Amino acid sequence: MSEPISHTLLSARNSACLDISIYPASGNYTFKLNNLTERFDNLITTWRVCVKNHTGEQNSTAVCTRCEKSFNDMFDYYWRIYANPDLDFCIDVEATMNATTALWHDVWSCPDDGRKIDRSRDAVVVIFAATILTIVIALFYAGSYIQTESAQRNLIQCEPS
Question: Does this model's pTM top 0.85?
Fold first, then answer.
């Protein structure tokens, strides 16, 4: 005996994609995208419209520069949901994001993250930490040397019996 389609829809992890309402009396059901999936769908639609508008331009980096914000918005939203262990993201959304990222990198050769990150502070922190570490080590060895030099040496002579 085959199962009704409603049981198949509910058992296939579709609750992460769809909100399904089943009406047993009439045998009908309705479904709509859940909030997470619908928000992602809106973000990817915005990105796709941008890409469509700028794909035909002479400059091959036009898609990267003009659609970077919509791509970053979409990826940031996806990553917040994907990295949260309490939320279950639709497997179709994961597949779509993987394909979108491949297009972004492989077709248009866009960078991973075009947002400018100031790394000059990182270098200052590393130099400061290395300097402090060097000073501490130098003080330790200088103190050890001074301590051994100032210690009185008492030689005890043993007489042979």
Answer: no
